[in-house]
Amino acid sequence: MEKLCIFAGTTEGRSLVRALRGAYRVTACVATEYGRETLAGIEGVRVLAGRMDADGMAAFFRENRFSRVLDATHPYAREATENIRAACERTGTPLLRVLRDTGADGGAVTVGSVREAAEFLAGREGRVLLTTGSRELSAFAGLDPGRVWARVLPLSASLAACAEAGLPASHVIAMQGPFSREMNAATLRQIGARWLVTKSSGAAGGFQEKLDGARDAGAISVVVGPPPERGGVTVEEALRALLPPVRRVTLVGVGPGGADLLTREAARALERADALIGAKSVLDCVESSAPRFAVFRPEDARAVLEAHRFRSPALVLRGDTGFFSGAAGLREALRDYEITVLPGIASPVCFAAKLGIPWEDVRLLSLHGREAGLVRAVSEHRRVMALTGGENTVSALCERLRAYGLGELSAAVGERLSLPGERVTRATVAELAGRSFDSLAVLFVENPCPRRLFRHIIPDGEFIRGDAPMTKSEVRSVCLAKLALEADSVVWDIGAGTGPISVECALAAPEGRVWAVERSPEACKLMARNAVKFHLENISVVEGAAPEALADLPAPTHVFLGCSSGDLRAILEAVLRKNPAARVVATAVTPKARAELTSRARDLGFSVLEAVTVSVSGLREADRDPVTVFTLRGVRTDD
Question: In angstroms, rounded to a whole number, what is the distance separating the alpha carbons of residues 244 and 330?
């Protein structure tokens, strides 16, 4: 394996060390013990601390026979850069200078050196915050120490340099960056500084954050321009030159977010990672010094991987990679990559442990930005646990359950599980409605008397009824059989009346939705009451006449047309526009209605599968008129 020497006392240097350590035997050289500390914990890397002149470097290069040297020193470490260049020339060692993107000066005052900065400030009033480092303090010795503050690293050498420059101890801010825009602004405001002195050290040195913070605080930035470079490459360019393409990635489930619930395997993967990619909220929960890339969509994650030469990138996902996770989408987007999937602890598993209950009989749902039939699940199962998010907050979900008559059930909410501020709240569903909870929470509902809602045919007397006509149970039985619904069917019930067909369809398609279209306002009210009575939140009542009321509905997979549904031709044309392959079941009582259905179906190109006449007689009531049930499916094609 080839050997590399990286002068790595900068952010760029550390990135190179992490990225190259698996492909090369890496020796990282830093000037100080603090630099050594920043590289601690990176496996497989030899780290040497101490300054060397050109002769010492040349001897070091000859002794170790490096295949290449990378100079990733600070833009202002001119002496070090010259020594590295000279040593490489003497030993014939290839050199790659890695440059820093210095960014824009944001319209600040620009000078050529720290001495020019001091001369500029000598003729102007106002307090000054120096952020150019302790080695440059002597240049400002001519300024009144009472107006100068210095922000330096918390090292004994830095503090000694401040004392030698005559700065009062109260004017020394010993802190380790990086510093945010807000932090810079707060510091300038606290000392009442009018001037901020900085070097144009680029994004890695927090240059833009300094300029923005100064603007926010009403201070003026004095920028020491970057020294001239002999030429070089960016970190990305260096990695493209030194690393072969690696199409390997690890999907890491990080559990609810707390570090204590990381699996040991996941923790090791994060420690080895040279880049972390994922949603910002998930990245914020992960402790790692590796570069972070906040993305949301799988294609954006792929774009990051394609733009860099990472050796061991980790795509981080909340919870478990197999439970309502983005892992499936990432697998598809990265199908040409070698993918390792590491599971995590799902939030419901964690919450079940907090509640002290087993979870083998818990019905698990994710309502984060999706509909998944919470009302029906709670009605049919003794225990239900759901992930909340988006519009489906705990409060909104509990209000929905309360509206369907489930408000007295016992419930619990788990917020920020495994994270600081974790909270578990127990109450009834009705008591939780209207209360505020964390946007990402887990809702648990317990129903001691669950009931299976699916029944073959519901007796007529169980429906809430008015004066609207109603399809009788015996006819409904045939109609439902002919519809042949699937679990996720999308149904239009046109001329729904008080909703018996809609209710039967909603029960038969628990993962689908029924659009019950009815022009009578009174019938619509009764239909809504029936939906609540049978705990069916997958019924949407549409008040209006067909075909106009159909315009904004989603394409149906199945359609039911009652005996008096309106303009038959226009309705069938509306169905075909939405889905030419829709299965249509329609009823007709009179010979005229039967003839019209047959004629319209043929005119529009439907395949008439069958027409069955149902005649029902009862012991306690007069014989009913026979009903013909038509089944139509799709239009004829050349195939």
Answer: 23
Dist. CA 256–CA 264, nearest whole Å: 15
Buried b vs exposed e over 70-105: b needs ≥16 C-beta within 10 Å? bbbbbbbbeebbebbbebbeebebebbbbbbebeeb
| 311-321 residues labelled b (16+ CB within 10 A) or e (exposed) | bbbbbbbbbbb
The pLDDT tens digits for 486-538 are 989 999 999 999 999 999 999 999 889 999 999 999 999 999 999 999 888 89
The residue-averaged pLDDT of 379-384 equals: 93
Rg of the chain (C-alpha set): 36
Task: Kindly list the distances between the CA atom of residue 37 and the CA atoms of 32, 47, 289, 432, in Å, as whole numbers in the listed order.
Answer: 9, 10, 12, 50
pLDDT at 624 > cutoff 80: no
Residue ranges of domains in the chain, CATH in brackets: 3-97 (3.40.50.720), 109-224 (3.40.50.1000), 247-344 (3.40.1010.10), 348-446 (3.30.950.10), 460-635 (3.40.50.150)
Distance between first and last Cα of the chain: 63
* pLDDT reading at 32 higher than 90: no
- Residue 127 CA: distances (Å) to CA of 179, 184, 197, 329, 541: 20, 15, 11, 54, 69
Residue whose C-alpha is closest to residue 68's, from 36, 27, 99:
27
Does the structure show a pLDDT above 90 at 232? no
Q: What angle do CA 441, 447, 450 make, to 5 degrees?
A: 130
Helix (H, G, I), strand (E, B) or coil at 43: coil
Distance (Å, rounded) from C-alpha 73 to C-alpha 100?
A: 9
Beta bridge partners of 255: 319
State the Cα–Cα distance between residues 255 and 307, nearest whole angstrom.
28
Closest CA to 407 of 389, 418, 395: 395
Q: What is the mean pLDDT of the chain?
A: 88
8 A C-beta contact, residue 375 and residue 535: yes
C-alpha 461/C-alpha 459 separation (Å) is 5
Q: Quick one: pLDDT at residue 106? A: 43
507 within 8 A of 483, measured Cβ to Cβ: no
Nearest-angstrom CA–CA distance, 401 and 403: 5
Closest CA to 68 of 9, 115, 122, 7: 7
547's tokens: 């075909």
Task: Indicate whether 207 pLDDT > 70.
Answer: yes
The answer to which of 44-58, 97-111, 244-258 has the lowest mean pLDDT is 97-111
Q: Could you tell me which residues come within 8 angstroms of residue 583 by beta carbon, excluding any fewer than 6 positions away?
A: 483, 484, 557, 558, 559, 631, 632, 633, 634
Which of the four pLDDT bands, split at 50, 70 and 90, describes residue 402?
A: very high
Render pLDDT for 457-480 as a digit per residue (tens, 0 to 9).
Answer: 888 888 988 776 778 888 899 999
Beta bridge partners of 195: 128, 220
pLDDT at position 602 is 86
Quick one: 552 exposed, middle or buried, by C-beta within 10 A (0-12, 13-18, 19+)? exposed
Q: What letter represents residue 395's amino acid?
A: S
Alpha carbon distance 217, 181 (integer Å): 10
